[in-house]
Amino acid sequence: MKYFVLTLVLSVLILYCSKTTDREYLDDGITQLDQKKVSDAITSFQNLIDEYPESALAPEAMVKIAQVYQNKLDTSLTEGASLKKAVDTFKMVFTKYPKSSQAPSSLFMAAFILANELKNYNEATTAYNQFLSNFPNHNLAASAKEELENMGLSPEEILEKKISANK
Asked: What is the CATH number of domain 20-165?
């Protein structure tokens, strides 16, 4: 009986001590991305989020996942599906971790992708306005205002608008 209890205690200690840390998950995900193992990278980042949802590294892992989709690295998805997942994941950073340092730029990136890649101007306008409402003094606030003013315009139209304004 003593040996059974000792074996049980040692087993629990080994399992507890061998648990992957949040930092290890993040570092592994980054390494996997560097090695072009996108699926494995997403799994590592998602494991960090699932096992350590309160970690300061969780929003960073979520941003990494969003960037994978933004950059269309998951070849199992169409371009549109990948961009939609990027938007949803960036928005989730803001929703789940509104106090994190990644929240403002994540909300901005969701709006930017909606406007410039997906051409969903209504949803982009809502996201930019939400960004400006929550982060009026952020260094991206001026860019958000400019994006709202020029949404849907071609680069030529934006240039023409700026030239007309300077006359």
From this structure: 1.25.40.10
